[in-house]
Amino acid sequence: MPEDALIHYKRISAWCETGCLEYFRLLLIVGFNASTLQTKPPTDRKTCIMTPTPPIAPHDHKTYMRYALEQAKLSPPSPSKFCVGAALVDADANRVLSTGYSEELARDRPNDPGSTHAEHCCFIKVADENGIHDFDIAPVLPPNTVLYTTMEPCNERLSGNRTCVERILGLGSAIKVVYVGIREPNTFIQDNQGIKRLEAAGVKVVLLEDDETLRQEILEVTFAGHEKRG
Q1: What's the pLDDT tens digit per position in 138-167?
Q2: Which superfamily does 42-222 belong to?
Q3: Given this model, what pLDDT does residue 106 score?
Q4: Sign of CA dihedral 132, 134, 137, 142
Q5: Nearest-CA neighbor of 24 among 49, 55, 3, 66?
Q6: Domain named CMP/dCMP-type deaminase: which ranges (predicted)?
Q7: Average pLDDT estimate for 65-81
Q8: Are 39 and 53 in contact (CB under 8 A)?
Q9: Hey, where are the domains in the chain?
């Protein structure tokens, strides 16, 4: 590790031990630049910043999607689910508020049964930081909060539990833009209408499907634990 990176690592670890591993793994993805690193903890807790801000240029949506993909890689492979990653970002401040991946957090939350999807985990972390339910995080989110998710938010669940689309819309206008890596494959749900429903409700959805390399990387991680596709 370069000497200047080590210095910044020690400074960051003093206030955010759990975030450092994610932070420096991202450095390997986007390249190290010491001048971009945050070395002081955030002071305004109302902004719900959960992790060190990665060294990503503002509005670099593909790199943020790769960051979400790194979260997806942490999801336990299984033939009964997809491995999805997500990141909740304050676009104005270029700060990551929280991250999540499929089944990262314990299932069957109070008054909210079922397993936790990546987007849901992002919301739970903000909620826990503020001592509220994840249904009620809208007032503590920054005005220009956006969501990056490697796969189209679910609009239907075989379990019948609350969908990610319902969770996003349940926050009112708190999340105005959702960046999506791929549409949901038809493995479990035929013709998921997540993107269509979000757009119908006034949420802007940006599907980052013009980069075939990124798309294939997302698909490979998404299907981790499934039988090899032909």
Answers
A1: 999 999 999 999 999 999 876 658 899 999
A2: Cytidine Deaminase, domain 2 (3.40.140.10)
A3: 87
A4: positive
A5: 55
A6: 59-191
A7: 96
A8: no
A9: 42-222
